[in-house]
Write a structure and sequence with these properties.
Elements lengths: L1 H15 L27 E7 L4 H9 L4 H8 L1 E8 L6 H10 L3 H4 L5 E4 L4 E4 L4 H7 L1 H16 L7 H7 L4 E4 L8 E6 L2 H5 L6 E6 L2 E3 L21 H13 L6 E6 L1 H9 L5 H15 L6 H5 E7 L4 E2 L4 H4 E3 H4 L18 E6 L2 E6 L6 H9 L4 E8 L2 E5 L7 E10 L5 E6 L6 E4 L2 E4 L5 H9 L5 E7 L4 E3 L10 E2 L5 H4 E7 L13 H6 L4
Parallel strand pairs: 1-9, 1-10, 5-8, 5-9, 12-22
Antiparallel strand pairs: 2-24, 3-4, 6-7, 10-24, 11-23, 13-14, 14-21, 15-16, 15-21, 16-17, 17-18, 19-20
Helix pairs in contact: 10-12, 11-12
Length: 521
């Protein structure tokens, strides 16, 4: 039994282990390095995506002088705390929106966990050890090595790497899971895993000119930070960036994903600054690669963003955790890792503070499922689609709300909508045919994106602040932090930009790709 679990445990380290700790760096430790600091003809843009970076703990860490690198970037840049994330507010969906400039209705990455109607199976991109073990290590590994970028990410959208290649600009991706580009790469599976599984030793994938993904592929052959989480850690990522900088081979655009803060916030809650303090030491290492920190600003435009907020989860498990299997126990629910049988009726895929509930049997009514869910006062609202019209109900409000794209009502993003019913359900305010968002920023487009992210009949369920959904073996974060919902407490992220005063048309993560590409126009 232990031998059979080894590949599960080894692969699971990819996403659920703790980031390795690096040595402390400070301004007195700076060393000169072979970094070009004179002006360049083409801008160099470095995008740092920091998982679960949030405004309040960021400001607190800076105020307490525990984040000198972030303080340096903030002092020399522009700042906003209100960039709207994608939905669900889960990393893979957010990453796909960032890199394609599209919500899931176009990118087709529905969430961290979802149900593939055609394959009749639950797809997980790594939602905790127990879920991975039940789904199967082979499917999980296939997702990381191949499925994300080469199958699931829609061919009808282009990534920033593909668009840059079109205008003859090169790019790099470091430890980002969504990275599709025009260059072929070979990912090497560590021998530890191949020896105890039936996985192949190599996977072919398509990425940017330069691709780093932990132990699977790296630019710096001497980068030895590959033991902890198989290199999908902050020490590895920062070493790769330093290597590109010090060798003067960094391309026009580089995206680097910093993940360690997310684990800390999940455990300790959204008010902690421990993760920020730790990641800042890594950023100090990057700045110390330059003769002086100010030299980092001369040739490079730095963009530092979060991906989603996390909101606190009530400490009492009984109160905090919405067990959808219990709520919907009258239905026959598909088991994790099992193929759908004829008598299975529904599928539950919990993405922390949001969930998809799928109807897979004609004997089941989506409206009946919605009615059952409505009785749980911890659920904010439930949505489903009938033809083009999206219906939303809530246990806190009378009636229902319906909407679809197009129509005479316009929002702040100049999107047109046809709406009717009780707008309070999604906290919308109407003034002279103008839609104003409250608790759910860009709520109509983001919910539309989730409702049209995949085939089949399903419901989208969103939790109130303080609560989290659990399915058969999904992780839980009672007493800590979680994300996933469309609420502003999960959705608004900070951004720091240096080297330009060029404004972003709309402060949404889906608008960043277009804005970044304008650096070379």
């Amino acid at each position: 039994m232990l031998i059979r679990l080894l590949p599960c445990i080894a692969i699971s380290i990819l996403l659920i282990g703790c980031a390795s700790s690096g040595h402390n760096s400070n301004e007195q430790d700076k060393k000169s390095a072979a970094i070009q600091t004179e002006s360049q003809s083409s801008p160099k843009v470095i995008l740092l995506v920091i998982d679960s970076l949030m405004d309040e703990p960021l400001k607190k860490a800076i105020q307490e002088k525990k984040a000198p690198a972030l303080a340096f970037f903030l002092e020399h840049g522009q700042y906003s705390k209100n960039v709207v994330s994608s939905y669900p507010t889960m990393s893979v969906t957010i990453d796909s929106s960032l890199i394609t400039g599209a919500y899931p209705d176009k990118s087709k990455i529905p969430g961290l966990v979802w149900f593939n109607k055609d394959e009749k199976q639950i797809i997980t991109y790594g939602n905790g050890l127990f879920e991975i073990m039940k789904i199967g290590v082979s499917q999980f590994a296939e997702s990381i090595m191949h499925q994300y970028n080469n199958v699931d990410l829609s061919p009808n959208v282009s990534t920033i790497h593909e668009d840059l290649n079109t205008i003859k600009k090169e790019s790099a991706s470091i430890n980002a899971f969504i990275y599709r580009g025009n260059y072929r790469h070979t990912l090497k599976v560590p021998k530890l895993i191949t020896k105890v599984s039936n996985l192949p030793s190599e996977y072919e994938t398509a990425g940017p000119k330069m691709l780093s993904l932990g132990a699977f592929i790296q630019q710096d052959k001497k980068n030895n930070h590959i033991v902890n989480r198989l290199g999908l850690n902050d020490a590895f990522a920062v070493q790769e960036l330093k290597y590109l900088l010090e060798k003067n081979i960094i391309p026009e655009f580089t995206i680097l994903y910093i993940s360690g803060n997310d684990f800390t916030v999940h455990r300790k809650g959204p008010n902690t600054i421990k993760g920020i303090e730790k990641l800042d030491k890594y950023l100090q290492e990057v700045l110390n690669s330059f003769p002086e920190w100010e030299d980092a600003l001369k040739n490079y435009n730095w963009i530092i963003i979060g991906d989603s907020k996390q909101s606190p989860v009530i400490e009492s498990k009984k109160e905090a955790l919405i067990d959808l299997q219990e709520t919907l126990s009258e239905y026959r629910i598909l088991k994790l890792g099992k193929p759908a049988a004829k008598d299975d009726e529904i599928v539950i895929t919990a993405n922390e503070r949001m969930a998809y509930v799928y109807k897979i049997n004609e004997s089941v009514s989506v409206k009946d499922i919605a009615g059952r869910l409505k009785t749980d006062q911890r659920i904010a609202w439930i949505a489903w689609k009938e033809k083009e019209l999206i219906h939303v109900i809530s246990g806190d409000h009378e009636g229902s709300f319906e909407f679809k794209p197009g129509g005479t009502y316009r929002d702040v993003y100049n999107q047109g909508w046809s709406i009717k019913g009780n707008t309070s359900i999604l906290d919308l305010t109407l003034k002279n045919k103008n839609i104003h968002y409250g608790d759910y920023p860009d709520g109509l487009a983001r919910l539309y994106g989730a409702m049209n992210s995949q085939e089949g009949e399903f419901l989208v369920v969103d939790a109130k602040p303080g609560y989290e959904f659990i399915g058969e073996s999904s992780p839980e974060h009672s007493g800590g932090g979680a994300h996933g919902s469309m609420h502003k407490d999960d959705s608004l992220i900070p951004i720091i930009v240096t080297g330009t005063d060029k404004s972003i048309e709309q402060l949404r993560i889906v608008d960043l790709k277009k804005w970044i590409l304008e650096f070379w126009n």
